[in-house]
Amino acid sequence: MLRENRNRISKIIALCLSLGVFFLESYGKASSESDFGSRRTEVAKITEYISRVRPGLEKTERETLSLSILSASRMLQFPKRSEFAGENEIDKVAFLLGVIQTESQFKRTAKSHKGALGYMQIMPATAKWLSKTKGIAYSDKSDLFHATTNLKLGVLFLNDLMKETGSPKDALLAYNAGLGGWKKWGGLPSYPRSIANHYQTWKEFETTGSFSYDLALFEEE
């Protein structure tokens, strides 16, 4: 019981720190109250979406992830004249949500049979390389179970792949198959298609507050 209480307190402290860093980075001294309210509303909407997809997730984990998604999505850099899911002005939050939902179903401790870890299923070797080339703090593979680190590394990797391939769709194919695999055989078309489906589902939820189908079709582990 004592250990559970300590873990709960640690999560609450982590959430408070994340909130503080997020709002400090996002708004600064010159930010208006309307901007603050808009971002807070967007975080709440993302949190609600995640709760619909993964209802068993703890509230503090959903909120921490939502803050990280909104923050990391701003780092996405799409090539000029890009389009995705039928849209020329790509919604960064929708794009990142689609990647995370396809990769891990918002499961922080997700692990693939190849050893990819966390929300965006990043290989430890890739994380180590990115940490050196991008100057991101990274100690070992356990860091990939932290939302901020996992999403930041994942987005930076996607940005590199978009520069290399020239399009969001091809970057996603390379993210899934590896850059070498994409160059050799093109990757799995079903992968970016899945992300596009989740992209559109988020857009629908953002507008109407509901889904056209039930997303919670998996068992909680």
Topology (elements, then pairings):
Layout: H1 2-27, H2 33-53, H3 59-73, H4 92-104, H5 124-134, H6 147-165, H7 168-177, H8 179-185, H9 190-208
Number of DSSP-assigned strands: 0
Shape: globular
Approximate helicity band: 55-70%
Low-confidence stretches: 214-221
Order of helices and strands: HHHHHHHHH
Specify the CATH architecture: Orthogonal Bundle
Q: State the distance separating the first and last CA atoms.
A: 21 Å
What structural class results from the helix and strand content?
mainly alpha
Domain module tally:
1
Largest sheet: none
Strand content: under 5%
CATH class: Mainly Alpha
CATH topology: Lysozyme
The averaged pLDDT comes out at 87
Q: Mind telling me the C-alpha Rg?
A: 17 Å
InterPro entries: Lysozyme-like_dom_sf, Transglycosylase_SLT_dom_1
Family: Belongs to the transglycosylase Slt family.
Protein name: Transglycosylase SLT domain-containing protein
Organism: Leptospira kobayashii
Task: Describe the model.
The chain is mainly α and 221 residues long. The protein has a single domain (2-208), classed as Lysozyme, CATH 1.10.530. The protein is built from nine helices and no strands. The chain is globular and about 45 Å long. The protein starts with a helix and ends in a 13-residue tail after the last helix. The model is unreliable at 214-221 (pLDDT under 50). It holds the Pfam family SLT.
List keywords for this structure.
single chain, 221 residues, mainly alpha, Lysozyme, 9 helices, 0% strand
